[in-house]
Amino acid sequence: MSWGPWMVLLAVVLLGTVGQLALKMALQSSGGLSPRRLAGSFHLWTWFLCYVAATILWLVVLRTIPLSQAFPVLGLTFALVPLVSNRLLKEHVAPGQWLGVAVIVTGVALVVQT
Amino acid sequence: MLQNRETLKRIAYLALLTSCLFSVSGQLLMKWVAGGGAEAGLSGTFLLHLGLALSVYTLGVMSWMVALTTVKLSVAYPVTSLNYVGILAGSYAFFGERITPTRISGILLIFAGVLLVVLKAPTAAGIGRSAAVKPRMTGTVEGIASQEGCS
User: Would you report the helix, strand and coil content of chain B in percent, each value rounded to 5?
Assistant: First the structure.
């Protein structure tokens, strides 16, 4: 299988990661979660756009890569989010979580074997 | 009062199961939609089917969020294993995908890894700080788009 679809899948993972982080930042910064404040929230719009883009690209991925293979790779976002949170948002990541990241990456390496 | 709390819990657990059902169905529908359509271009039928797939999936995500208002993450996340099972079974049954032992092992690892990340096992040093970190929301789209969680 060519590299193309896998690159698109990686893009979906990255968009999902950015979206999750944007959502987190949107929910944290609002003092109160009023609909009006959220509607104008930059972070919330980022989250929304990321997920729209990710959904479109996901359909492209599904044309080539089997669902049973592509879907588990999305688990990579659970590995990337702590990593980026740690670097960008200065969030603490427990040792158990780092282990989880390693386990996820190992699992993904197995899943992408065709 | 106690009866209300019990009912609320039952509804939350039902929402969890519903979330998995809808998320898996939504994903399978999306695969079906992706397979057709593109050569014919953005026909009305294609858009209709896409709308259906996305609606079903979105219901799954919303169910998940409803469940999370009541159920603890430590209970909710393990239930997402049903998502993986559902997708494996559905991919095989409806699309004839090949499920290799390697792929299954990989999925088991990914599931275990996600649990470790989301359910931060407390350590002696991290207990104080772990308590301060808010639990993460998910949309697993699946998980992606997603959200996921029950992607």
Answer: 70, 5, 25
